[in-house]
């Protein structure tokens, strides 16, 4: 997964609401189950990799259906997010269809992590990933000041990291450490195949800076909810706390910046990588702050366009609009009732 310098990494979909801070007792209990959980995940992944994509996707579908039915909080959040984003443009049945697809694609991404090495280019089924001309251009053009690949939780975000590594362009991904240390090592190993690498989110800035100075590649995800200190931006027209500090970091580095997404082709283990060159946003006139602002705006606009093309492949169950500007209404109140569109009026004035 291409993970954000300032965002939290999601190695697999969470099946509960955002957890409360854990005390010594709860972590002590978890330590007893850490190893069995990691071994179970590793064993399931090994079986799935041998059975192949068809069986793995069928298994992902079963898990997604269980997630949909057994965790109503996430189901309601996904539907509410679609209400916020589309503001009455979608019928209830269409929103439910998109939300169900979102659950499947999240589980398929998690299952696909175990299939990459065996089933992607050079494995048993070569050629399952294709790329548009913009992605191929990233591979062929020289970038002496390094490259930043911005991503989003759309399609199979884990595949991007792996595919570029196979092409000889190892990406340094920044990930938040998983509480389960055994599972953390397993996921890190899977993400480090064929030249890709992972660094912990804490203290990552120095490593990222040096990586770009060496003319190499970093990967950032910046589409999820940020601390309020980062400021607010409109995403699908609604104001939400948005990661923005990375903009100034990239402006100072002088690197090339591209948004890259990996779209799953139907419910099969075939993908299309698409890219948008955002470098122009930081190479134009203006102060450092102005260019950083343009970059963040260009990233959000391009990502939103990709999501609108493939809405069922976005991670709608994340509470993207949970942190709001002062005085703005809570959009996740009364999730059992339809959202009143009137409360979204005036959003442009709050961003």
Summarize this, please?
By secondary structure, the protein is of the alpha/beta class. The chain is built from 13 helices and 9 strands. 47% of the residues lie in helices and 13% in strands.
Sequence-ordered SSE layout with sheet pairings:
Elements (H helix, E strand, L loop, with lengths): L23 H28 L1 H18 L1 H15 L5 H21 L3 H4 L9 E3 L1 H8 L6 E5 L5 H10 L4 E5 L5 H11 L5 E4 L3 H10 L3 E5 L10 E4 L2 E4 L3 H9 L2 E9 L6 E7 L2 H4 L4 H22 L37 H4 L1
Parallel strand pairs: 1-9, 2-5, 2-8, 3-4, 3-5
Antiparallel strand pairs: 6-7, 8-9
Helix pairs in contact: 1-8, 2-4, 3-4, 10-12
Number of domains: 1
**Helical amount among residues, as a percent range?**
40-55%
What is the class in the CATH system? Alpha Beta
Structural class: alpha/beta
* Distance between the first and last residues' Cα: 29 Å
Order of helices and strands: HHHHHEHEHEHEHEEEHEEHHH
How big is the Rg?
A: 20 Å
Uncertain segments are 1-21
CATH topology: Glycerol-3-phosphate (1)-acyltransferase
What attributes does this structure have?
13 helices; two-stranded antiparallel ribbon; 351 residues; 7-stranded mixed beta sheet; alpha/beta; disordered N terminus; Glycerol-3-phosphate (1)-acyltransferase
